[in-house]
Specification:
The two termini are 14 Å apart. With 175 residues, this protein is an alpha+beta fold. The C terminus is likely disordered. 33% of the residues lie in helices and 31% in strands. The strands form two sheets. It has a seven-stranded mixed sheet with strand order 1-3-5-6-7-9-8, with helices on both faces. Strands 2-4 form a two-stranded parallel ribbon. α3 packs across α5. The chain has five helices and nine strands; from the N terminus they run ββαβββαβαβαββα.
């Protein structure tokens, strides 16, 4: 059974390889430092039955962000004050051995759930992500993310869309 956990010393960061050196280096060298400094939090997907150090199947990182409402679509911006808060998913990666198995979607849904926890405590207009390229952009768009007019590789998923997605359970789903 897979489980999302906050990155800790009990996780095998050195054994992780997603095929992207910047993402590998972030996990190995930066993620825990950012957590200690309060910059961001990194969550890992592990097999809960694994022994320590637990191999990391995938991860995502989140941090609070502030944006100018005028960077959103005109329809969104007109309802908001000039400066608005949200949550940015800084990184998302899946180990090479587990790619193309739906793990990215699992991580994205978990990130959406973490956003809702933050939203319920402090508010925020939605989840933001910077796609690294057009392929990543298309990947996020299939989940309802929309490009910001100011930068087509910066995408936004409004809180309402997240709430609807998390409340819609597929037939036969439990929990």
């Amino acid at each position: 059974m897979h489980k999302i956990e906050l990155l800790a010393k009990s996780h095998d960061r050195d054994g992780f390889d997603c095929g992207s050196e910047p993402l590998n280096l972030f996990l190995k060298q930066t993620a825990r430092q950012h957590a200690e400094r309060g910059i961001s939090r990194t969550f890992v997907l592990v097999d809960e039955a694994a022994t320590t150090p637990k191999p990391i199947i995938g991860f995502f990182s989140l941090h609070i962000c502030q944006i100018k409402s005028e960077s959103l679509t005109a329809q969104e911006a007109k309802k908001l004050p000039r400066d608005v808060a949200g949550v940015r998913m800084g990184r998302l990666a899946v180990s090479k051995a587990c790619q193309r198995q739906g793990i990215g979607k699992t991580l994205l849904v978990a990130a959406m759930g973490k956003f809702i926890e933050i939203f319920n405590s402090a508010g925020g207009i939605g989840l933001f992500v910077d796609a690294k390229d057009q392929d990543a952009k298309r990947y996020y768009e299939q989940f309802g993310f929309v490009s910001l007019p100011s930068n087509e590789l910066e995408l936004f998923l409004p809180v309402k869309t997240i709430q609807e997605a998390l409340n819609a359970k597929p037939a036969g789903a439990s929990g």
